[in-house]
Design brief:
about 35% strand; homotrimer; elongated; Jelly Rolls; 3 helices; alpha+beta
């Protein structure tokens, strides 16, 4: 099962919280228990987990990444966005999260974020899902025999 | 198949080796061949692979992370642990490792570590497993049809 | 389904593009739709996505990583390659990419790279594949019943 999320990022560097949208996709495919694979098919954006309660944390993260990989650095790549490629590589492009009770098994303070380093622009997240017990929550949950 | 490991980290910043415990979980579920998914549901801890032979490497890693993301930096997040969130995001929260012969396919010098950046405290690692040939090693291994 | 790629890296620090070789493995196993898991069983090499069009980007990345984690730093690990371990940990050891139409669902500018930080040497990438519709592209594509 595949789905592509389209995300319009709102500034040059930004963490866009996509947690609700990913959980909505799981619900629409009735994935109750399984694995959710998130992949970002871009070179200047990544995917990561961060706290979603205090927005200052996103600001702190992006500012510190700018300090670690300044855009002003002398890079060879002529387009002037080498820093965005490096930041995206450090954040990473794939994230795999187990699914239980129809939701990502995120911790209480966790959210899933598209990390934009060269926006604003329209981005895609490829969502793949594997369901290991595609029962809906309305059904009585009996102990199903494990198939694998 | 899911299991949650509970790990009591022993200092503020520390790499806790959980390799043996993860392999024990695989064994208890008789996962002989398949995939092991590790996910850390915390915002100030991550999961990573590192060498497990020389403990100096963990010290070098943690000290260098402190140099890259100093706690003393001026951050906005009021709790004073922004540095721990940034370090955890750089390390990452998910790790996926193939399983063969009932064990993680780790290299000779590799171990799996919970990376604690805001301890000491009790942490959780969510372990999901998919078995593609749930045969026990006692059975004669014939070429079983792949179930996927 | 497992396969091990052998990669001879060509310098001390280098991003080796393995995209074509991974897609060849998917084709040889007739994985048309599914998930591809890549794992590097080494402590001084990692796996990552980066742009594959402009080779300057690999140079920029490696040079900037050298600036962030200099080999000259005073580290405790006696072998003198602590910097390579730290770089590999930051890049990461596992990467999971969906497969569609018999290929990794990479973006237009993306390639998959083994990130060598302590070469040149022979390296391995463990490739695991899960096929969710193991049809070949020659067959007429009918809507197969989902098995999970």
């Amino acid at each position: 099962m595949y789905e592509r999320l389209s995300i319009v990022t709102r500034s040059q560097e930004r963490l866009e919280d996509i947690t609700t949208r990913v959980n909505d996709v799981l619900r629409s495919h009735e994935v109750n228990e399984g694995i959710c694979y998130l992949f970002v098919p871009h070179t200047t954006a990544g995917i990561m987990v961060n706290e979603n309660a205090d927005p200052h944390l996103a600001t702190d993260f992006l500012e510190h990444m700018r300090a670690l990989v300044p855009a002003s650095e002398h890079f060879r790549h002529a387009e002037g966005n080498s820093h965005a490629h490096i930041k995206a590589a450090l954040v990473g492009h794939s994230l795999v999260i187990p699914v239980e009770d129809g939701q990502l098994t995120l911790g209480r303070w966790q959210g899933v974020f598209l990390a934009e380093f060269d926006g604003p622009q329209e981005r895609t997240v490829v969502i793949s899902m594997q369901s290991t017990s595609p029962i809906t929550r309305e059904e009585p949950v009996t102990r199903a025999p494990r198939r694998r």
